[in-house]
Amino acid sequence: MSYDATKLADWQISEEAEKKMPTPEQWRDKLGLQKDEMLPMGRLSKVDFLKVINRLKDRPDGKYIEVTAITPTPLGEGKSTTSCGLMEGLGKRGVNVGGALRQPSGGPTMNVKGTAAGGGNSLLIPMTEFSLGLTGDINDIMNAHNLAMVALTARMQHERNYNDEQLARLTKMKRLDIDPTRVEMGWIMDFCAQSLRNIIIGIGGRQDGFMMQSKFGIAVGSECMAILSVANDLADLKKRLNNITVAFDKSGNPVTTGDLEVGNAMTAFMRNTINPTLMCTAEYNPCFVHAGPFANIAVGQSSIIADRVGLKLFDYHVTESGFAADIGFEKFWNVKCRFSGLKPHVSVLTATVRALKMHGGGPKVVAGKALPDEYTKENIALVEKGCANMVHMINVIRKSGINPVVCVNRFYTDTDAEVAVVKKAAEAAGARCAESQHWLKGGDGALELADAVIDACNEKNDFKYLYPLEMKLRDRVALIAKEVYGAEGVSWLPDAEAKAKMLEDDPKYADFATMMVKTHLSLTHDPTLKGVPKGWILPIRDVLIYSGAKFLCPCAGTISLMPGTSSNPAFRRVDVDVNTGKVSGLF
């Protein structure tokens, strides 16, 4: 059944749907899992992915469906909602369907954007667990990451306090000679805390640590999270966690977690994160939740492991990429698929009339403030002009060899005439287009979308990467800037270009993925530029090295790894009933 999403909050819909949510034992029977393949954790369960993969290794993979979007407003355009709605719609068509989504960060959940559970009648349940830590993966990642910083700062203190002979005798360590001005890592927490972006640590005496400038980032931006999203198994996770570059020594050589002898202990903290958590939509379609990397800087996808399991268990497997197609799809296409060896059957491009109006010149959209009237009343001219952004994203996806399905994620304030404009523009660009009202009606509102996706999955595609691995870093960046973002060229700051040349000349970085760092609010590096800007140059100011994840991250514009909390954050409306323990106010 569906609920009145215009009157009930998301947490209320989740609460009602949870009354009939399958138990772990029922899920085991429904999915055909063996008893030892389910790892119960309260109302939820993790799935022992390796046992499932090994048992089903000869079963053909299902259809692989990726969900992305046009350039969003600061409110987001409903990729998670569309992913859940598509699962529900396919379920209504009687197919064996499931999916994989990312775990939400406590930062947005307690800020203005809210959780990433979807919404209305197309959301993940149980919503409270999903939004407040789930089965502990982010907490384990925080412990692992911060343990690396404990190891680094303690080592720097002891190397300052002892000479070489004392180090060897008292601590059984050799001197690493870490350069305090070249510490790459900072600390992490899972909230938006702008006051921790730049800090001084080690204030006090010689026994109070090493005094230096440091920083905090948000937990999902940790390289440990990025590693979880691309790891193949526990052995691969352990290897990668030992290869993280924490700092450089005074000769310019990398100092890794392995050098600090902390990578194995980090793996111990993260040993349980390797298995996906099983949840479901409000209509009880199974969905794995695993990893949640920052899409601005990392791959921005749920894990390769979750997709591998889903493709064995489901005939249709839905996975979502973070942010718009210029970021999320590009990384899915050229990084995640290359790392996993998996090839998608179709990409669903989520579009909203609201965002298209913004790209057509509508008033500024500000999270936490009411939408101007232009976004809730019919305005054909704004929609028509804004469709250029959607067409650009259609063309980006088609460069991968995939013919996308455009999903018009319809709000109840959108008019038939506005939706018709979007459909006409999408079809003129050569894409299938379907209207979907999954937020309002659940699976019944997503049948047109489900049918379009089934048709597209049965159509042969010619999936191919944008560039070969042999291509040099700067050439890759230039190609992505031109073919994906629409830039005329790339300008490198001198220090960034020197770093790029050094990385290109070092063979150990030859097979590293190119993981662009750019705002999600524009095709350009400037979040204020909407639509499809012309005649601009992409500036690259730095290249970050994620040596455990094997990412090189060219940075365009200014991206902060620690977002800020707004003046009207969501936590003000979250509450707990002291008699029942039920949480209210989540959205």
TrEMBL record:
Taxonomic placement: Bacteria, Pseudomonadati, Nitrospirota, Nitrospiria, Nitrospirales
Protein name stated in the entry: Formate--tetrahydrofolate ligase
A Gene Ontology molecular function term of the record: ATP binding
InterPro entries, sorted: Formate_THF_ligase, P-loop_NTPase
Binding positions (ATP): T73, P74, L75, G76, E77, G78, K79, S80
Membership in a protein family: Belongs to the formate--tetrahydrofolate ligase family.
The protein's Enzyme Commission number: 6.3.4.3
GO biological process: one example: tetrahydrofolate interconversion
Organism, as annotated: Candidatus Sulfobium mesophilum
Catalytic activity field: (6S)-5,6,7,8-tetrahydrofolate + formate + ATP = (6R)-10-formyltetrahydrofolate + ADP + phosphate
Superkingdom field: Bacteria
Record keywords: ATP-binding, Ligase, Nucleotide-binding, One-carbon metabolism
Presence of the UniProt keyword Iron in the record: no
Pathway involvement of the protein, from the record: One-carbon metabolism; tetrahydrofolate interconversion
NCBIfam families: PRK13507.1
